[in-house]
Amino acid sequence: MNFFKNFLASVLGTLTAIGLFFALILMLVATVASVMVSPTSSKAIQANSVLDLNLNVPITDRNPSFDELEIILDLNEDVLGLPEIISAIDQAALNPKIEGIRLRSDFITAGWSQTRSIRTALEKFKAKGKFIYAYADFFTQKGYYLASVADSIILNPMGELDFKGLASEVLYYKDFQQEYGIKMEVIRLGKYKSAVEPYLDNKMSDANRYQIQTLLLDVWETLNEEISVGRKLSSETLNELINTQQLATPQDALDQGLIDLLDYESAVIDLIQSRLNLGTAEVRFASIADLNPSSPSAYDNQVKDRIAVVYANGPILYGEGTQNIIAQGVFTETLEELAKDDWVKAVVLRVDSPGGSALTSELLWQTLEKVKKQKPVLVSMGDVAASGGYYIAAGADQIFADPLSITGSIGVFASLPNASGFIENLGIHAETVETHPNALGYSIFQPLSPAFEAKTKKSIEKTYALFKQRVAEGRKLSETAVEDLAQGRVWSGKQALANGLIDSLGGLQATIQAAAKLAQIDHYNVMEYPNFDEDLSSLLSGLTISLGLNRLWNSVLPSTLSSQIDQLSTPKPAAQMQLLLPFEIKIH
């Protein structure tokens, strides 16, 4: 017996020593990395320089964190944050040594409202009398929308330009459920609350088709108008080109005035050299990092006042919260600390979320109400701030959104998976013994009982009423007006302004400026929150993602099915009460 005890102790000691050694190695590598690659001032920008703006990389709503270990191990991806992109463009506009921009936006990954924010910054850059030349091997529709702001657009002669209008596709699962005996039990309120519609039918309802159609038309109107101005073509002409399918080849795009030249990337260099009278001299390019030389680049030690920007990205779930999941844990703690911080004069909540847990949405709403008693709270909507995302925004002092933002979706539903038919087909039978009627409650192996369904419906009605009350109080609207805007219907930012769901059209910077005005401060530092602690577990998890395992999953499954599985596999409270966008909005 002593032999085995000594043996196990020896093995445990060896494993512990190996673990500690590995941890020390990681700490040492991270320390060396921080010395080798810590942000410092970049090279000095010389006269007649051009900002090299390559946006064919992942773009996030918040600037990515500086991860020394990933950099030293060369595992980091090139990721740009929307704030640093816009900051670089703004700095370039003010810098007399920057003469223009070379733009690449073949397949920009940013959302529509994020892309419009970049385009707005580029328009301001051009207003300073500076040039923008854009090149692409091929243009996605979103990439072309961004490039349409340029003075000249060059397309590879063997490339392609996607310009066809907007569409949204929804898959329906009723027959699939009947065939395989697995279905979703659904209880909902609001005729537009169609997140669960695919489980109930094989075709789109008239109400859902109407809301998607009006949303797409409103978004297209904005895109069409801005491309029209950029290319000096009428909106009618652009629509006619699409309707008559006159844009099959790059030559068609050139003939119809959508681009200026069919050539290769070297042609951009020729244009720049000619514009700057450089002859054959090499063009001096500046990077985004050169314009934002340090992190944080704009912090002024002489200024005490701060505006806090709290990034709330991802679905709303019950729990702790991460950079990609909104939950009450870290967000409530952060907001409460900001409320007590005398240096923080206002809070801007940047919301990019399709919604989720009704309980968590209410907890965050309550917290924001407490912050409002101490200082101004404003909301900046990203690509999507709908359902639960709108719930947490509704009480803010002011709400800003881009015309292309998607918001609203004031409605509630509950969905629970049911595999009773599936297990019956497998020859598995579920039986129940109870001390009281309906003691079992919900079971994935049995159909919903009438009592459980009635109880859930009553809870949904209560949640829906509270949701509408929060909106009515926050937006100073009557209950009747809110009901007309609710029922799960989604709105574009432009529509939301017209019907009173938001206060102003504008991006994050406009919201920050409005916050400063409300706080009555002229000089301030902008601070980003929440701060997420990186422990060894999360670090190793991040490295796994960097190795591309998540890409393998996404490449194997269709995106729609993958997202459905993610929704089902994500932990939620037992009640499954959801304030969620009525469908996955992917505008193609």
Strand-helix topology:
Elements: H1 2-37, E1 49-54, E2 59-60, H2 68-72, E3 80-81, H3 82-94, E4 98-104, H4 112-126, E5 131-136, H5 141-147, E6 152-155, H6 174-180, E7 183-189, H7 206-231, H8 235-243, H9 250-255, E8 261-262, H10 266-275, E9 284-286, H11 288-291, E10 306-313, H12 328-340, E11 344-353, E12 355-357, H13 358-372, E13 377-386, H14 388-391, E14 398-401, E15 406-408, E16 412-418, H15 420-425, H16 450-475, H17 479-485, E17 490-492, H18 493-499, E18 504-505, H19 508-519, E19 525-529, H20 536-546, H21 549-556, H22 559-569, E20 577-580
Parallel strand pairs: 1-4, 1-9, 2-3, 4-5, 5-6, 6-8, 10-11, 10-19, 11-13, 13-14, 13-15, 14-18
Antiparallel strand pairs: 7-16, 12-20, 15-17, 16-20
Short description:
The protein has 588 residues and is an alpha/beta fold. The chain has two domains: 49-163 and 247-291, 2-enoyl-CoA Hydratase, Chain A, domain 1 (Alpha-Beta Complex); 306-580, 2-enoyl-CoA Hydratase, Chain A, domain 1.
Number of domains: 2
Query: Uncertain spans, ≥5 residues at pLDDT below 50?
Result: 29-42, 66-76, 536-575
Fill in the CATH topology of the largest domain. 2-enoyl-CoA Hydratase, Chain A, domain 1
Count of alpha/pi helices: 22
Amount of helix = 40-55%
- What's the story with the biggest beta sheet? 8 strands, mixed
Note the beta-strand portion: 15-25%
- pLDDT average, as an integer? 84
Structural class: alpha/beta
Q: Architecture of the largest domain, according to CATH? A: Alpha-Beta Complex
Shape, per Cα inertia axes: globular
CATH superfamily of the largest domain: 2-enoyl-CoA Hydratase, Chain A, domain 1
CA distance, first residue to last residue: 69 Å
Number of strands: 20
Cα Rg: 27 Å
Report the top-level CATH class of the largest domain.
Alpha Beta
